[in-house]
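Working notes for the structural subgroup meeting. M.R. asked for a predicted model of this chain before we commit to crystallization trials. I am recording the input and output together here so anyone reviewing the notebook later can reproduce the run.

Input as submitted:
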Amino acid sequence: MDKTQYDTCVVGAGPAGLAVARALAERNLPYTHIERHTAAGGIWDIDNPGSPMYESAHFISSRTQSGFGGWPMPDHFPDYPSRPQVLSYLRSFADANGLTDRIEFGVEVRDVKKNADGSWTVTRADGRESVHAQVVVCTGSQWHPNIPELPGDFTGEVRHTVDYRAGEELRGKRVLVVGAGNSGCDIACDAARTADHAVISMRRGYWFVPKHVFGRPVDTLSGVGPKMPMWLEQKVFGTLLKILSGDPTRLGLPKPDHKLFETHPRSTRC
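Returned structure, recorded in token form:
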């Protein structure tokens, strides 16, 4: 197959899709960009049908450590930008790099099939087909909820994060949040403010790291000071974390079953 006769197809115009599109455009490589929604932004657009986003969502890395190369987040953004700010940043990046006008908006991909000659046929929902040398799928992994089977009988409401939007939905309720991932911690904070009673359940203990230390975003401190071996970093920052946040078991949370930095720590905003 002579791949020069075909371009690259990029599916999805969220952060990953925009990054791939810019990389191709900067190298003057031809590409086709397809997005099923009506604008760029992916899950950060809360109005996109099926978006798992909620009102209190925000970046968990600071703006100075985040963003596309050569396109820093605006100085007026807070240390940890909110959902609408991240969305505006993504769209400004797409506009500034000439990506927006090249996206086929409102077009859903129904099928991607490899051909005998090594090329790929992309079929849109309306039946239209196009052939490409390669396809880069940037559709994200958060659109389809993974809902476990729960034994027993429970007459209350059970919902997945993807169906949650704002803390007001929890007012007057007794809420159990299962899981201490990023969204679980966010929703637990919302529930603590609005619900009658809020509890978080987790299968293992985690290290909870504050977003700011000494007035600075915590992720900006990683390169400050002399380089230390991991065991010393764990000892120094573990001690500092105990001073700043105290013992999590006093709140009924399980004790971490691993050392600091051995898994992804949880950040807190409560």
